[in-house]
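User: Hello! I'm new to structural biology and keep hearing that structure can be predicted from sequence alone. Could you demonstrate with Very long-chain specific acyl-CoA dehydrogenase, mitochondrial? Please show me the input and the output so I can see what each looks like.

Assistant: Of course. The first part below is the input, the amino acid sequence of Very long-chain specific acyl-CoA dehydrogenase, mitochondrial. The second part is the output, the predicted structure written as tokens.
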Amino acid sequence: IFEGQGGSAWLPLRPYPTQPGQRSPGLCICLSLAPFHYLKEVNDPAENEKLESIETATLEGLKEMGAFGLQVPEELGGIGLTNTQYARVVEVVGVHDLGVGISLGAHQSIGFKGILLFGTQSQKEKYLPKLASGETMAAFCLTEPSSGSDAASIKTLAELSPCGKFYTLNGGKIWISNGGTAEIFTVFAKTPVKEPTGEVKDKISAFIVERAFGGVTSGPPEKKMGIKCSNTAEVHFDNVKVPAENLLGELGKGFMVAVSILNNGRFGMASALAGTMRGVIVKAVDHAANRKQFGDKISNYGAIQEKIARMAMLHYVTESMAYVVSANMDMKVPDYKLEASISKIFASEAAWYVTDECIQVLGGMGYMKETGVERVLRDLRIFRIFEGTNDILRLFVALTGIEVRGSLCSVVLNPFVLSLFCSSLFSLCSKVGIPTGLSLEGIVHPGLDNSAYLVREFFLKDLFLRAQPCNQQFHLKRVADAAIDIYAMAVVISRYVASRSLSLGQPTAEHEKLLCQTWSHEVGYRWLRDRVWFTRCGRRMGLSTRKPCCQLAASPCKKALCGQCA
């Protein structure tokens, strides 16, 4: 979208993936049904939360199903699923227990993913079989007390011994999922690296660290708001001797390793949260269809209908994003980091909204523990924070889009460059099968013409041409929101189930047509609401709240609250 490339470069968006990977669809269906029935019949999320751990019986059953090595190659003891097949399975886990999902995800989605992506053949053969079987657990160790979103500021240090045979690792990591239970850690540390000029600089490198090396200790499990059954703990490294052959990737390239692991794992979060949304929507719909008030079922009242409709739309978009991104990855698209980031932002916020609305539909019953929805809401809160906060990822989306059209400095100094950035977005329509003119005949089903037109009309004409130099996060956030909405509309329209099922007369055709059309209009209304941020007229009328917000934030708390707390 941002680079202005068309043609074959955008085939990953069309068609929308209709098969769960290149291998037999039946395999994936069986793999998803097995954990579905198992988690439904054996796993008890409420009991897991009460114990603040996953019951042994649940873990053993998941090990037997191969759930700890879903994407590990078969020759190394795993199942060897594609990304799309993996997304299908974790969506099922997301329906039942996010705490279990976090434990599995922290293990394979990021814990040992670095070994899969960057490990040598000997490293893979040594570690992956036991990790895939669940005999050993893995954890991803990046965050430190002084290093959260700014991962480059880590202080953990690894120094090469004079003999060159091992690194001495010292430092500590916080809030590590599986930190207290893992035996294998992917650890990021500063290492002295000699530049071609002869200058020595500290750069981040990645290492495979075993608890058995000695000097690795874990703190007590953290007390958390949600996902209580997953283990989260500090991990400390005290003069740990790490063999030189356990360097993961190249020396000094650890930041790239970390970013690649996180980008590679984000699609799984979107698919898991699509499953979570599906589960709570079922509860809301079931309650609305059976609850009577004022002599009628509450499902017949407009306020409830609006809630359920919006919940269904958000689930549809999230699911579409998850499978488009996973399909891109399976097609070996070289760069999917923007799409993965967008899917993480959208899914985590949509899942929170949907679950909150489910509680509202259920009323007082939704607030009760026995219903289980309040636990899901607490579990969901972390998803907007870890693996990259949504705030930082929004800046990443906006700045990346700007930088591909010219350096950030040029954009800040020259609004015309931003206009060029906008002009490149006009080609979005053709990239997803929608021409830039008004005629859409033969591209999408005629029933979706208006939705396709809105992609172009509501955003691409006005937003970036009206935007001022984006050197402020107020503007960057809204640029990112627009990009997210554009991508959301694109994947929904490109979801061939929508246009193809209309043409083939499938039973779900009208329902999916309504989802697509209504979502497009929702996005259009959102743009009309926010466009004042980018118009001179809005600023003259005082409709933009950017300056007042800055002033309020800079004031002492007692001034911001008008002296109420004084």
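User: So the tokens describe the shape?

Assistant: Right, they're a compact way of writing down the 3D structure. Reading them back into a model, for example: The two ends are 51 Å apart (CA to CA).
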